[in-house]
Amino acid sequence: xxxxxxxxxxxxxxxxxxxxxxxxxxxxxxxxxxxxxxxxxxxxxxxxxxxxxxxxxxxxxxxxxxxxxxxxxxxxxxxxxxxxxxxxxxxxxxxxxxxxxxxxxxxxxxxxxxxxxxxxxxxxxxxxx
Length: 129
Hints:
Elements: H1 3-6, H2 10-15, E1 18-20, E2 26-32, H3 46-62, E3 69-80, E4 88-98, E5 102-110, E6 116-128
Antiparallel strand pairs: 1-2, 2-4, 3-6, 4-5, 5-6
């Protein structure tokens, strides 16, 4: 699966996420906050933030795999630091260690002002289809 194939899926389109990978082992997913991202309190719903970092983690994990290998999240620890309600949010992710069967990643979501919104640590497993 190519990066372009990975970057196109219905939830990404619905949420309006942009996904990029500058180098192997890194990725960024971003979106511009819209009313559809907000919870009843007027801030970005936690599930949107989680989807943003999970998507960036998936892209970073896929960027270090050989052709024909895939990865999926098995554990993500997510911490909310502050609420977000407007502007562009960016999740930047780095592969910390890519082993034979597990990939460990760290991520951060920041707002346009570079203030930290949330942090995440994830483990992905690798497999063949």
